[in-house]
Amino acid sequence: MSDLLSRRLALLGERANLSLLSQCLHGIERECLRVDSDGQLALTPHPAALGSALTHPQITTDYSEALLEFITPAEADPATTLADLELIHRYAYSKLDGEYLWSPSMPCALPDEETIPIARYGDSHIGRLKYVYRKGLALRYGKTMQCIAGIHYNFSLPDSLWALLQHAEGDSRSARDYQSARYIGLIRNFRRYSWLLMYLFGASPALDAGFMRGRPHQLQQLDADTLYLPYATSLRMSDLGYQSNAQAGLTPCYNDLASYTDSLRQAVGTPYPAYVEAGTQKDGEWLQLNTNILQIENEYYSNIRPKRVTHSGERPIQALVARGVQYVEVRCLDINPFLPLGIDLAEARFLDAFLLFCALHSSPLLDSDECHACTDNFLAVVKEGRRPGLQLQRQGQAVGLQAWAEELLDSIRPLAELLDRSLGGDAHLQALQAQRAKVADAALTPSAQVLAQLQQGESFTQFALRHSKLHAEHFRSLPLSAERQAAFEAAAAKSLRDQAELEAQEEGDFDSFAAAYQASILAQAI
């Protein structure tokens, strides 16, 4: 263990400071496709009983009208976060008429691209903006890619913990700049070590053959309807089929917040020839918000993002520049198809220890070579993570995945112990031990377990639909109390009223609104 990490752990382990770790916040966003009883994509509109996808704080849609997204509040205990997520699922299932939530990350058998419905958000300017943005995604990347689902894990440390460390280390920056720099340091370490999460939690080694749309690929045929790679952990996070030449040069290595926001701001303001050729409108219909490398910041695909809660009408980059980093959003987690929520408490506890390690461990700047090695290691593990003897790159040297994973788990152990001291019990150590077992035996990983079931003779679709129906039984066997059900129904009704109010109050035309939205970020570049 480094001296710096030892000092930080000792400081946080003092009796007066130990409670700070119990104030970390956790939130989850879980995406999932609605499917019919045959495992086909639901072509029905977003259920009105779930409320407005535009204004409901907890139940919305992502890319497609069929791609639900459930959002929990930020809670101090991940057990509470998961309980919140469970309640949303139970409410949703009370309103899903004969439909199911698809259990894995990779999508069901999809209809042709034209038939996949883009999410609708009503007639307000912001609702139309969200729709046009998604039309732009369809134009740029195709709709099939946008039907992949995942879990986003939001994590923050309390401001008082950062203040304690800053004081102890005699750092003279403003509190905001120190905290932002430390979160960016966390992200650099995440880039170094996130391959470990893909080995431990990747759960998408196979997919429906139709997903490839006849494109050339390196996948193997498992059966007539299923493609896979024998040692893959997460085809979802591979470069499979998702090739964005426009974003190829956009690889911020997170050496400071300013370079990150500047690179995104530049991409939102720089035309890209193929998009310029397509144009923003055709026959009076919007095709995309603009013809730049990115339409908006969120179009940049990354495994982790620095985040700040935005004010009404504020853009993500504006919030980061104005007030600094508040939390991180981990975006590379597959949905575990064996779990009703797609994630469980053991995974959340390990993520907390892993992210705390990334935050407190020294985090030197990434040079170009290490930046490329981080990307290469990640791609090697998502495609071949369970291959016996797989070698990764560390500081220019080859290192075995298993040996490096064991070293990392040894380094994370003191963080798990500190969290257990802070919160009581041994849940974090138990979660760590469960991961050690997976490193010792790749057959225990979710990706291996998925393949083991598929090799019994089920196609990907049969496997996924069977688990989708098992999860539906689980949630439907636990109806909400009348009080909770009424509260969800009231929230849904309020969101519909809020959307109607927004639409009734709208002034001006959409073209002017879209132009002002674009200008709002470019103005910051001056």
Q: Unreliable stretches, pLDDT < 50, 5 or more residues?
A: none
Distance between the termini: 44 Å
For the record, the CATH class is Alpha Beta
Major sheet description: 7 strands, antiparallel
Mean pLDDT: 95
In CATH, the architecture is: 2-Layer Sandwich
Approximate shape: globular
> Fraction of residues in helices?
40-55%
Instruction: Give the number of DSSP strands.
Output: 14
Tally of separate domains: 1
**Approximate strand percentage:** 5-15%
What radius of gyration results from the CA coordinates? 23 Å
Broad structural category:
alpha+beta
Number of helices: 17
Q: What fold name goes in the CATH topology slot? A: Creatine Kinase, Chain A, domain 2
What is the compact description of this entry?
The chain is an alpha+beta fold and 526 residues long. The protein has a single domain (3-117, 148-259, 303-525), classed as Creatine Kinase, Chain A, domain 2, CATH 3.30.590.
Characterization of the model:
The structure is a single chain. Strand 2 and strand 3 form a beta hairpin. The longest helix has 23 residues, at 401-423. This protein has 17 helices and 14 strands. With 526 residues, the protein is α+β, with helices and mostly antiparallel strands. The protein has a single domain (3-117, 148-259, 303-525), classed as Creatine Kinase, Chain A, domain 2. Strands 1, 2, 3, 4, 5, 11 and 12 form a 7-stranded antiparallel sheet that branches. It has a 3-stranded antiparallel sheet with strand order 6-8-7, covered by helices on one side. The chain is globular. The protein starts with a helix and ends with a helix. Helix 4 (159-168) crosses helix 5 and helix 10 (345-360) crosses helix 13.
